Amino acid sequence: MSTLRRTGVLVITSVFAFGTTATVAQASTARADSKAVARSMVSAHGWSRSQFTCLSRLWTRESNWNHRAHNRRSGAYGIPQALPASKMASAGRDWRTNPRTQIRWGLGYIKKRYGSPCGAWAHFQSRGWY
Asked: Is the keyword Cell cycle in the record (predicted)?
């Protein structure tokens, strides 16, 4: 992590695993935007606020809501840490770069496999993966 001063404004930067530099504020904004999209999609699925809380905990542990998160060991990718990552292509061709596409795919996967985000979170807590 480093700091820069630009016209009297302190900017904190961080280098991520992909070798790119982004401000902490940009990363935080991207996570907040992704969470807002997910909150809306959770509601559209008919799930409650508590289901979003479970989803938030799950995806914070999996990727910290980073749509470019990549597990080099397993190959899992994106906010939901899809494995193989290419499965997310079923939700859209832009799955590598679009958090909304990743979230849409992730919620469909959770609904089909676990019934709800809290079901996926419970599985994660007992097994360390979902």
From this structure: no
* Summary mean pLDDT of the chain: 88
Number of folded domains that form the chain: 1
Hey, what amino acid is at 119?
Answer: G
DSSP state, residue 6: E
Is 28 a domain residue?
no
User: With contact defined as beta carbons under 8 Å apart, do 114 and 123 qualify?
Assistant: yes
* 71-130 per-position pLDDT tens digit: 999 999 999 999 999 999 999 999 999 999 999 999 999 999 999 999 999 999 999 999
- The reported pTM is 0.80
Q: Is residue 1 part of a domain?
A: no
- Reference 112, options 93, 91, 96, 128; nearest CA is 91
Q: 107 is in which domain, residue-wise?
A: 34-127
Nearest-angstrom CA–CA distance, 95 and 126 = 29
